[in-house]
Amino acid sequence: MPKGHTQQRNKAFKGESKRRAKQKSEGKLKKKIKKQEIKQTKSKDGQQEIQIEKKVKDQEQKERVVKTVNTKIIAMFPMNQQSNIAALKFRLMQHLNIQQVGISSYCTQDCFLNVEANGKLIKQPLRFIFLDRNAEQILDACKVADIICPVLSCRDCNTNTISLDPHSNANAFDEQGYKLLSNLRAQGMVQQVCYIQDLDEISQSKKNVVKKLFTRYFESEFPGSHIVDDCSTLMRSVVVLHEQAVEWRDTHGYMLPDDLAYVNGELSITGTWRGQNGLSADQLIHITGVDDFQIARIELLGMIEQVYESNQPESLDPICRDKQHDIGDCDDLLKDIAGMQLQEEEEQMIEQESDVSYEDLDKEFEDEAQKKREQFEILHRDPEDLDYEDEVEYGVEVKLRERYDKYQGLKNIRTSEFDPLTFLPDEAEKIYNFRFLKKIKQDVLEEMKQKEQIKPGQRIKITLRNVPELIVQRLTQPNKIYVISGLLKHERKMTQMHVRFHRHQMHNCVLKSKHQVFAQIGFRRAHVNPIYSRILNNCSKTKYVKEIKDDTFYLASFYFYNSFPQQPVIFWQNDFDFRNNEIMGVGDIQRCDTFQVILKRIVLTGYPVKINKRKAVIRMMFFNPLDIKFFKPIELSTKLGLRGNILEPLGTHGLMKCMFNNFVKPNDVISLQLYKRVHPKFVNIQI
């Protein structure tokens, strides 16, 4: 027994333990509170810094836009047949007390209305552009406009039955208006002020109902826009709204001409240079819908007059003439190797025409195979009846080793390697290649800032050299809008352009590869011949498709002048008419790379005729033993997921013995997949 086992042990005092536990808990809480406060202060400081940086950037951008632009441009255009733009111009002139001025220059035509600043409400000069229902002119005007003003007339609104069926009785947007709206969305829109016309002609009892209905139409199609119904609110909204920066046009710089003059093959264009980047005399100038031109000189107008001559202008030749950029062609290795093997195999097949061990099997299926061949030659299956998407049909007498000698086998299109320097087209010697387009764009913009002679917001006179008279006649047509834009370095060089796009929801027709389409790329418009390919996940290669029937994203590849990313791309039909044809596809520039691998796939199919576990005899894929030996190294696959290889040909009628990785079923379809690199067709660019 221990010594103190009989001693009394009293219960410990609870207050001390509670006090100590309380102190410990309070200490832990204090530490936690301090840590939380430190984290909160850090997070608050970080968030405040980010918000301050955003505010500073937005303010700098606004100041840059406001300071550099002297005149605010407003484009007004109708969205239905009843809209009267001429009447709107007359009412606006009456409101501003402006009298009709004779046409003395380009900017004083009937489609323009110039409003000078008065120091009160109008603190900035305004230029209104009044446009008819010509979608080409509307798109060009919206490229340079700071504010767009769609106009809807409510004159044909059926007020008697509007409460029963508002959509059919409103007569707001018509079919052509919706087509124009889809084009504007694809190109990109700036700030909007929507105008409801002819509201005074509606009876007083129905005026509020009609106004709410048309306001709802504008809010659904132009969210966040200002909606007005008279000239006073229109002017207030136009003056209050700030210009919105559009990156793809501001990086190039652009100008709406004030005056044009043509003397001795030189075209002089006067106006105010706009955008965020300046201009130098060595750059090229692009006139939308016309062509590219070299600058002879630039005259700076205003308080300080100065002339900048062009010393080293960029070349207009888009073709690569330097041998250092010559990529060259690669020989078709498959064709050479196959030719060597075929000579030896044909000599052996002449000596041994048939295999004795499979002679009975060959005779057994000879008659049936002949019937199948005759049926195969006469009847062709529809695309819906084919087992595979890329399955091809061919005659019995076709030598597949010659017809598909440029094709090769790949185990997996995503993971298998394909050398991008092989099977290049002849055009690779003539065009330029831009592997790192975004980095090149950054270098070009930095170089431009160092060499710029004209800053945004300055009034200048650009003189272009070697301008044909036919082009000048087009430019001097009355009430015609033309946009002048600057080209960045390398944007005149020919390359292979790849555009990520999708078929527009309003276009239900099938898009076919190699068919000519009309494209708009930024400020440029031209006819191109694209080929389409499916974009593969986690893979740089793309798979060629003949037709596009869905609205998923595809890659369109064609030869065109180099253009840097973040420029909108719009596709229309080849026989393009702005009034009748809707938009086909919308996208943006992905890259300009000659080494982009686009693989075309074909599938040869056969059917098992005799099965022995994993082995099977396949027919109807080939009709010649030489073809079987030519494609023997390529792996086979089945529709049920098996993999296999060709062992040997049997007889002389196209039968072959194959081995698979599992048991073969009689209803399975055996396929052999071949791939070939394809390129777009090189054609002269037609603007």
Automatic annotation (TrEMBL):
Annotated AARP2CN domain residues: 230-305
InterPro entries in the cross-refs: AARP2CN, Bms1/Tsr1, BMS1_TSR1_C
A GO BP annotation: maturation of SSU-rRNA from tricistronic rRNA transcript (SSU-rRNA, 5.8S rRNA, LSU-rRNA)
Basic residues bias locations: 1-12
Residue ranges annotated for the Ribosome biogenesis protein BMS1/TSR1 C-terminal domain, each copy included: 391-678
Bias type Basic and acidic residues, positions: 13-28, 35-49
A GO cellular-component term linked to this record: preribosome, small subunit precursor
Gene Ontology MF term list: GTP binding; GTPase activity; U3 snoRNA binding
SMART domains: AARP2CN, DUF663
Family that this chain belongs to: Belongs to the TRAFAC class translation factor GTPase superfamily. Bms1-like GTPase family. TSR1 subfamily.
Protein's UniProt name: Ribosome biogenesis protein BMS1/TSR1 C-terminal domain-containing protein
Organism lineage string: Eukaryota, Sar, Alveolata, Ciliophora, Intramacronucleata
